[in-house]
Design goal:
Layout lengths: L27 E2 L3 E10 L2 E8 L10 E7 L3 H19 L15 E7 L2 E8 L4 E2 L3 H4 L7 H22 L1 E2 L8 E3 L5 H12 L4 E4 L2 E4 L15 E3 L6 E2 L18 H4 L7 H8 L9 H12 L4 H6 L2 H7 L28 H12 L12 H5 L2 H4 L3
Antiparallel strand pairs: 1-2, 2-3, 3-4, 4-6, 5-6, 7-9, 8-13, 9-12, 10-11
Length: about 375
């Protein structure tokens, strides 16, 4: 089936058809994985559901998620670093419960392309991002009664990453918390549907672009485990030099990242607590919202900041240079959480307050948050 209106990776402003692998439905990769459907795409890769065709007839059918990265020096280096992170985690001998909630690269290999090699990463397939559960449950967002147990699992996973693996994820967001399949039959039914009705495809720059089909249908019974995924931007925390490069999507940036005041594990904790913004982004507006929610930043944080950035945003005495950008007083955590009330809301505000602190060292750790009263409170 062909279509001229498909807008996927080709809509990215830096789309280069020569860098993306020209994958096709039904193609067999590395003599083992037959592509069933395209699940999604990113600036540096496409992601596919594939069937392992090397299984013996008496073995159960095995599906994998196959991430085919773009060729190019930077893209290949990033993919190799993701593999390195997974290998380090895999080699750690630990009984920490949190390792179950971390998604790892199971295998990696290279395939040739017209413009260079493409590194392929193999993962166990997962269903969808955690936030999509609200759609299945008929609610606007994930209800607290469902969200709290998942948060406890994610905090265990994050504590394992921080305390035992010494890894900072740096890109914690809703799309990177993935829920597994409730039972194997979901995948089998989905695969049959894709074979009966393949996704449309169009040609862009001499390369086929397929429509993504990430929807596996309604929940059958219960839900699978949740896992922290996508370690393409992760870094090791146990290195001699402090980290100070840009990380995190801009609306999620921790204050020490915005101010270039060096950052560590607690930047991940800020990510868990922050609420996404959906307006036009500006660093000054972002800081202004923090000032309203948290008060003025401590001088010791500003002293560690990049002096060029600090000078544009604050006076020498620590006063914010753009007071007109500070939202009105009714912009507060309480008003931003209208979906909660009573004791549940009071405890939630306390929970979030432990994560949203100017000073990284004052934020609670994942292990401390795991035992927070809000996560065990039942309204």
């Amino acid at each position: 089936m062909s279509s001229t209106s498909i807008q996927e990776e080709n809509r990215h402003p830096d789309y280069d058809p020569g860098k993306y692998y020209p994958a096709r439905l039904g193609e067999t990769i590395s003599k083992q994985y037959r592509l069933v459907s395209k699940l999604g795409w990113g600036a540096n890769s496409t992601v596919w559901l594939a069937k392992d065709i090397t299984r013996w007839v008496w073995q159960p059918t095995r599906y994998v998620t196959l991430k085919i990265t773009n060729c190019g020096i930077d893209e290949q280096r990033s993919a190799r670093e993701e593999v390195e992170i997974s290998q380090r985690i895999s080699k750690i001998r630990s009984n920490h419960e949190g390792r179950r909630y971390v998604r790892l690269v199971r295998e990696s290999f290279s395939i040739p392309g017209a413009s260079g090699d493409h590194l392929c990463l193999v993962f166990e397939p997962l269903r969808e991002p955690l936030w999509v559960l609200g759609k299945h449950l008929g609610s606007n967002g994930v209800p607290p009664a469902v969200l709290k147990p998942f948060l406890k699992l994610l905090l265990q996973g994050l504590d394992f990453l921080h305390s035992e693996c010494h890894i900072i994820h740096t890109d914690l967001k809703a799309d990177n918390f993935l829920v597994g399949f409730e039972e194997p039959g979901v995948l089998a039914r989905y695969a049959r549907q894709q074979e009966d009705s393949p996704a449309p495809v169009s040609d862009h720059g001499g390369r086929p672009v397929f429509q993504s089909r990430p929807d596996f249908g309604p929940l059958r019974k219960g839900v699978g485990l949740v896992q922290i995924s996508d370690f393409s931007a992760a870094v090791f925390g146990d290195v001699p030099e402090p980290h100070n490069h840009d990380i995190q999507p801009q609306p999620f940036c921790a204050p020490e990242v915005l101010l270039k005041a060096t950052w560590s594990y607690s930047a991940d904790i800020w990510n868990l607590g922050i609420m996404p913004g959906n307006s036009t982004y500006s660093r000054a507006k972002h800081i202004a919202q923090m000032v309203r929610l948290l008060g003025p930043p401590p001088l010791q944080l500003l002293e560690r900041a990049d002096q060029g950035i600090r000078g544009k945003l604050f006076t020498n005495h620590g006063e914010f240079r753009f007071p007109s950008l500070v939202p009105p007083e009714d912009f507060n955590l309480a008003s931003l959480t209208p979906f909660l009330d009573g004791e549940d809301k009071r405890l939630f505000l306390g929970f979030v307050g432990k994560m949203l602190r100017w000073e990284p060292g004052e934020r609670a750790t994942a292990a401390q948050l795991y035992n927070d009263p809000w996560l065990d409170f039942r309204a």
